[in-house]
Amino acid sequence: xxxxxxxxRVIDPGRLDGIFDILVDRGRIVDILPGQPxxxxxxxxxxxxxxxxxxxxxxxxxxxxxxxxxxFREPGQEHKETLETGMAAAAxxxxxxxxxxxxTRPAADSKDTLGFIVNKSLEVGRVRVFPVGAVTRxxxxxxxxxxxxxKAAGAVAVSDDGMPVMNSLxxxxxxxxxxxxxxxxxxxxxxxxxxxxxxxxEGEISRMMGVKxxxxxxxTIGVMRDIAxxxxxxxxxxxxxxxxxxxxxxxxEAKERGIRVTAETAPHYMTLTEKDVLxxxxxxxxxxxxxxxxxxxxxRRGLADGTIDAVATDHAPHTREEKARDxxxxxxxxxxxxxxxPVSLGLVWDQVMTLPELIEKMSVNPARILGIxxxxxxxxxxxxxxxxxxxxxxIDAGKFRSKARNTxxxxxxxxxxVVLTMVGGEVVFEEGxxxxxxGAVNFSVE
Length: 446
Description:
It is a single chain. With 446 residues, this protein is of the alpha/beta class. The protein folds into 2 domains: 3-61 and 378-445, Urease, subunit C, domain 1 (Roll); 64-370, Metal-dependent hydrolases (TIM Barrel), CATH 3.20.20.140. 29% of the residues lie in helices and 25% in strands. It has 13 helices and 19 strands. The strands form 3 sheets. Strands 1, 2, 3, 4, 5, 16, 17, 18 and 19 form a 9-stranded mixed β-sheet that branches. Strands 6-7-8-9-10-13-14-15 form an 8-stranded parallel β-sheet. A two-stranded parallel ribbon has the order 11-12. Helix 7 (216-233) runs parallel beside helix 8 (245-256) and helix 8 (245-256) packs parallel to helix 10. The longest helix is centred in the middle third of the chain and has 18 residues, at 216-233. The chain is globular, with a radius of gyration of 21 Å. The two termini are 19 Å apart.
């Protein structure tokens, strides 16, 4: 199908920012032309014979969002999430691609499990799935996987996410092997001995609640160790879910020394603090835990100055029953695919960063880290996200495409929503716009 996306503000950071029409044919961008900021007056004069014209006037068109860090639970825990429901949630959230973490059951430590994930995701369709293979067999931290096998099966990176590789010699060997194959190492950086038995950030709130805490140093020490090993080996290192001021500082200094390190944080670390555990209970329990207001501000500064390269969701679905357990026994993690963009846009409205800078963090930089090209360029695959920056509403977890509902953001008042996601020229999510007699716009999920 030939499609013309008409009259939107096209933002491709560092390349485009203006009103353009994007022409799509056979799944690819065939042209980008100067557009008109009016649909009704110019639609009759459009050329090119498009079979469908998408009215993007008043909307923003960007390179498709990419999430470097999700947990889709299949195989093994399909009661929490499946590839199908996870991909549907991703499409609704504006994501054209996701990286699935290997802590499935069995772990994604072999060509068989990775092959299942790749084949099932292709069968389901919608968004692109880039699987991450395990660093060690069964995520046990003892025996390295066959990285050549994992890469041949489709792995774009390796990680034992959820667990660090505590043995420094083994981590060095893992980095060397990954580097030889040009595989990205995604590190869950944590000192397990310091963190042992903890369920939330160590501090005033943990003492008030009588819950054993995890000091921020547990993360920062892990980050510093992994950076030292990346410097030693020359390997590419990506630090997952940065939450602590010391970790931001360590990444900033490593970049200044030219070490090949990138980092991500999640929307909850730049919006919430340990005090929100009192309000949201286990829906504010994750690892690393929510930290102090000072840590949150450090994460925001790290995003603004480029120390932190990407915003990733760490989408971690759990059942209601699991999250209803006592705080210390409830599993870590919250879902985030369908809330990431509106929650992150809050930093734009608060003038922490500009809209193009946020797009870099959620789209362009993740693509760069993965070594793929998602720019809005003639000849590229038509992978894009369309946003209504003016829509104001309350997040309603009851309407999520994900199976899970474990989010602290349910009911949050936000501004900005995804109205269309396109992958390979195919519209995989669309939210209809109907104008009322008074000129207002109502939304309905199609």
